[in-house]
Amino acid sequence: MKLKLKVAERHKEIIEINTEFIKLDSLLKFAGAAETGSVAKMFIQDGKIKVNGEVCTARGKKIKDGDVVSFMNIDYKIVKKD
């Protein structure tokens, strides 16, 4: 029996910030990945968020220019506005 698997294509989005960093939970709300802070907190605590390819469970993690936050099939690349 052969199974056909369809791998979902990853989407990439650029998130521009005008500060030195943004906290992970705030980023998820800002990007629209989480409706509220409590939903963002649950995603983070459940290990569903990766920062630069590694699972991150610290909701206060400082996300800076050049970091990539992955959630579901979306990679959010952080870019600091000049």
What tags apply to this protein structure?
single chain; 82 residues; alpha+beta; five-stranded mixed β-sheet
Profile the largest sheet: 5 strands, mixed
Mean residue pLDDT: 92
Q: Structural class of the helix and strand makeup? A: alpha+beta
Strand order of the largest sheet: 1-7-6-3-4
Q: What is the CA-based Rg, rounded?
A: 14 Å
Number of helices: 2
Shape: globular
- Summarize the helix and strand pattern as letters: EEHHEEEEE
Q: What percent strand?
A: 35-45%
Count of extended strands: 7
Low-confidence stretches: none
Q: What is the CA-CA span between the terminal residues?
A: 56 Å
Q: How much helical structure, as a percent, in the residues? A: 10-25%
How does this model look, in words?
Strand 6 (68-71) and strand 7 form a beta hairpin. The protein is α+β, with helices and mostly antiparallel strands. Helices cover 21% and strands 35% of the residues. The strands form two sheets. It has a five-stranded mixed β-sheet with strand order 1-7-6-3-4, with no helix packed on it. It has a two-stranded antiparallel ribbon with strand order 2-5.
